[in-house]
Write a structure and sequence with these properties.
42% strand, 4-stranded antiparallel β-sheet, Rieske Iron-sulfur Protein, single chain, 5-stranded mixed β-sheet, 120 residues
Length: 120
Amino acid sequence: MTVSSTATVIAMKQWLEVGKLEDIPALGARVVRTPRGDVAVFRANDDHIFALDDRCPHKGGPLSQGIVFDHKVACPLHNWCIELQTGCAVAPDEGHTGSYPVKVEQGVVYLQLPAAPAAR
């Protein structure tokens, strides 16, 4: 199950508040819409949180709709397995998707995005 969310910028460090940890289902994901594209924030069964571009490196399938197991997600289109920590495909498949730092503070999940390039 995925839940669509509009992220709120907090501070100047580009940390976005995703929501409460309990709002992300165990073995599930929440989609955060960002100016850089959708990011899937995953919750493993052990409550570890991970964030990846919501795009499989194979054919662009929505990883947020995949099956989460251990610290991996299986793409819903062709069953490619992606490591949640690194965004790398599990061998023998090859490729990777972007991954992002996350943190949980007082039960609230935050996602860090790279700073936007300076305007010219």
